[in-house]
Design brief:
The chain is an alpha/beta fold. The protein has a single domain (about 1-155, about 185-210, about 250-265), classed as Rossmann fold. It is built from nine helices and twelve strands. Strands 2-1-3-4-5-10 form a six-stranded parallel beta sheet, with helices on both faces. It has a two-stranded parallel sheet with strand order 6-9. The chain has a two-stranded parallel ribbon with strand order 7-12. Helix 1 links the parallel strand 1 and strand 2 (about 25-30). The longest helix is centred in the first third of the chain and has 22 residues, at about 70-90. The protein binds NADP nicotinamide-adenine-dinucleotide phosphate. NADP nicotinamide-adenine-dinucleotide phosphate binds near residues 11 and 151.
């Protein structure tokens, strides 16, 4: 089976390099240098010439705050390129696997959010991710979207890396405690993608996928300090004391029942964090 992967040097892309090891898979991992998602002709040409059976889009504009002032690039990567890739998948009858975000939800429901719940994106990043989902679903009937949240991977910058660095440098830290979600290990997303590839009869469409359990950023940072044996004191603060250019949802816990019914592999985010630490080459 030929598989084309975009954005392959990102958190999920590198986790996929470790996960797609089945010798019957012929994988073409591309990142910006090999395939710039802003070059529509190149994206189309790569898909049509390689003729993969599966395309996995890990490329995205993920700088959530920068996106507020860099809208055009964000639209081109998170929306326009997704349409081009999805259209190419239809032309070659390939399955399209795309990743989206919990930020498409933004509401006051204090219960886990269903795929069918209304979306209400409140930032440029979130709006372009939702638009990308719609483009993918309308351009390719064989699209599977995984909406995930709070991704931490072994490679690249992320919240765990930032907390470990700050926790080593400082005695005390303030972390937001009124944004609630679920941390998700990039390697677990890669396993979920593998499950999609291998489950031929899985219904296309949108699936929430995240670590089991619930946390605030404050809870997550305390767990990181404990896991890494750091003595830094973490203080809870409200979002209003940590303003950011882009709005974040206060509550974006994903209801995982649809993916659980589809037998996706899951584990608790605390177990995933322990695994991350055990495999962290920097410790
Ligand atoms: N990170 C999170 O917390 C989070 C949460 C929910 C959902 N997601 C979604 O999960 C998916 C994977 O995210 P991630 O955490 O793995 O992100 P990431 O580490 O930022 O990786 C994104 C990748 O896309 C590449 N990329 C950006 N612009 C490109 C372009 N024009 N052409 C080709 N490649 C380009 C980046 O390359 P460069 O390094 O060269 O820019 C990077 O390798 C994304 O769809 C994201 O929206 C992420």
């Amino acid at each position: 089976m030929r598989i084309l992967i975009t954005g392959a040097n990102g958190q999920v892309g590198t986790a996929l390099r470790r996960t797609l090891t089945n010798p019957s898979y012929e994988c073409l991992f591309t990142d910006r240098d090999e395939l710039d998602m802003r070059d529509e002709d190149a994206v189309r040409e790569k898909a049509l010439s390689y003729k993969p059976q599966v395309v996995i889009n890990c490329a995205a504009y993920t700088a959530v705050d920068k996106a507020e002032s860099d809208t055009q690039a964000c639209v081109e990567i998170n929306q326009d390129a997704v349409r081009v890739l999805a259209e190419a998948c239809t032309s070659i009858d390939a399955r399209f696997i795309h990743i989206s975000t919990d930020y498409v939800y933004h509401n006051d429901k204090n219960r886990p959010l269903l795929e069918s719940d209304p979306t209400d994106p409140q930032s440029v990043y979130a709006r372009t991710k939702l638009a990308g989902e719609k483009e993918a679903l309308s351009a390719c009937a064989k699209t599977t979207i995984l909406r995930t949240s709070w991704v931490f991977g072994l490679e690249g910058g992320n919240f765990v890396r930032t907390m470990v660095r700050l926790g080593s440098e400082r005695d005390e830290l303030n972390v937001v405690s009124d944004q609630i979600g679920a941390p998700t290990f990039a390697d677990d997303i890669a396993r979920a993608i593998l499950h999609v590839i291998e489950t031929k009869d899985l219904k296309p469409g949108t699936y929430n996928y995240a670590g089991l359990g619930v946390a605030s950023w404050y809870d997550f940072s305390k767990a990181i300090m404990e896991t890494y044996g750091l003595t830094c004191t973490v203080n809870p603060i409200p979002t209003k004391l940590y303003p950011t250019p882009a709005a974040r949802p206060h509550y974006s816990v994903l209801d995982l029942q649809k993916a659980q019914a589809g037998k996706f592999p899951f584990r608790h985010w605390r177990d995933a964090l322990a695994d991350f630490h055990a495999r962290d080459a920097t410790t």
